Amino acid sequence: MVQGGARSQSFATFLILCPTSFFLGILFSLFPYDYPLLWTTSTPNQVDFQTVENHLRFLHASPPIIARILHIVIAVGLLGFFIKLYRPSESNMLFDGASLVLYMCGFVVYMANIVKGLRVISAGSYDVELVEGEVAVGIKGAVPGEEKPLGRDDSLKVLSASNTILALVLVGVLVLQAGQWYAERKQIQETEQMEKENAAAGKGTGSTQRPGSGKKKV
User: Fold this and answer.
1) Which of 43, 159, 161, 201 gives 20 to 30 Å between its CA and that of 112?
2) What is the pTM of this model?
């Protein structure tokens, strides 16, 4: 039973690590497009924005099978978490629980920012889409409580920033899973060390016992 439980935990960890690494690979492939918008000291020019916009429109116009595969991979990661959190131990509750929270935060960023941003970019409706909850105070013609529309440049920057946030969240998932592996490995080593010490102490006690001395017969 212990070996079976360990194997199921290892398989569940595999189901978590593979989708997380897969998504990080996708984000890394987008980094050359995000870099000119966020990570350079020079101001991005219109050529940079046009390049990013064309690339994102191409991604959003990809066949539906691409999005379905992406959603299946997301579901595989969730399946791994559910397997590990079924009858959880203390280690599962700490590391896997925190990993699941980060994974769901990444899912929210994907649905709220990235998917919506791709739709806006494909439609070109930058001045129509509004950022909810944003208060435009001190801007000419705006009153508190109104929503401020984002232009093309700001929308592309927001999408690039969302990719960065999502990458950090996924790296956090990998760090937590690595921390769980290290903690369980140290626990196994300490348990084996204690068993060896107890066995050595038992042998030492047995060897120092004196044989019972019988009474001499008269």
Assistant:
1) 43
2) 0.77
